[in-house]
Amino acid sequence: MKRYRAFCFDLDGTIYRGKKAIPSAVDFIHQLQKKRLDVFFVTNNSSKTPSQIKETLRQFGVDASEKQIYSSALVTAKYVREHFGKAKVFVIGQDGIRHAFKQQNIAVVEEQPDVVVMGIDREITYDKLTKACLAVQNGAALIGTNEDIRFPTEEGFHPGNGSFVKLVSQVCNVEPVFMGKPSPVMLDMIRQEYGYAKEEMLMIGDNYDTDILCGIRFGCDTVHVNTGVVRTETVKEKELQPTYVVDDLSGLEI
Predict the structure, then answer these.
(1) Are 34 and 4 within 8 A, CB to CB?
(2) DSSP string of 99-137, one letter each residue
(3) Tens digit of each residue's pLDDT (9 = 90 or more) over 147-179
(4) Distance between CA atoms of 253 and 235, rounded to whole angstroms?
């Protein structure tokens, strides 16, 4: 593997699966930290605040600062502020997206929103989905923090945020705007804030359709690990290939 300055990791399926760490990934991150190489955590999960993600990583044996954590919640809040100004927003989501909106001084409302934002919500209800559908039919823009249809756990796959956004979009016959991977926005934020060249960055993940395509669209090298959503056999059939394909991160030498 060639030398890189910035190593950008997906979380679920790459560093851990559900409540279980992936030892080879944790060991690889420790090696990078010992060599004082820069490590970032790039996640489509909008449910947690940066401090909560930091604590999750700590429980898996990974030390991180909040400045190293980039989530779809952060990107979504900045996008709404830049494109909709002082718009009122109806939110389906958990702590992460609400915390991000509060930081951007965006008004979160229950009635007559200008924008509907959907992030993963493990307490989602028919009533919440109905409110979102009615708001979009009345002219509100529809934004999803990410389009992941599913995510891996130790039990098997659980439904992801994208599955619920697609439900609302199909009911309302509109096309949603998605913020998270495979959009390259988070990687570009890292590049701009730290001054890396794209060839100095490496995106590492288990999901070809989000992590790997994010890196490819951004223009940096990528590593697909066979520890999560998309199996190696499926990846090898894709037209656009990752730079590296490994069973797990013990297969990479720094």
Answers:
(1) no
(2) HHHHHTTPEE-SSS-SEEEE---TT--HHHHHHHHHHHH
(3) 888 877 778 889 999 999 999 999 999 999 999
(4) 21
DSSP secondary structure letter of residue 209? I
Count of structural domains, the chain? 2
Token pair belonging to 152: 């891996």
Q: Answer yes or no: is 56 within a domain.
A: no
The one-letter code for the residue type at 66 is E
CB 104, CB 80: distance < 8 Å: yes
Enter the tokens of residue 49.
């605040």
Range 57-71 burial, b when 16+ CB lie within 10 A, else e: beebebebeeebbbb
Query: Using CA atoms in the order 14, 18, 19, 23, what is the torsion angle rounded to 10 degrees?
Result: -20
Range of the domain at 231: 6-44+181-251
Q: How far apart are CA 17 and CA 23, in angstroms?
A: 11
Partners of residue 108 on adjacent β-strands = 89
* pTM: predicted TM-score of the whole model, two decimal places: 0.83
In single-letter form, the type of residue at position 172 comes to C
Six token digits for residue 46: 């909008």
Same domain, 194 and 156: no
Question: What tokens does 29 get?
Answer: 């991150």
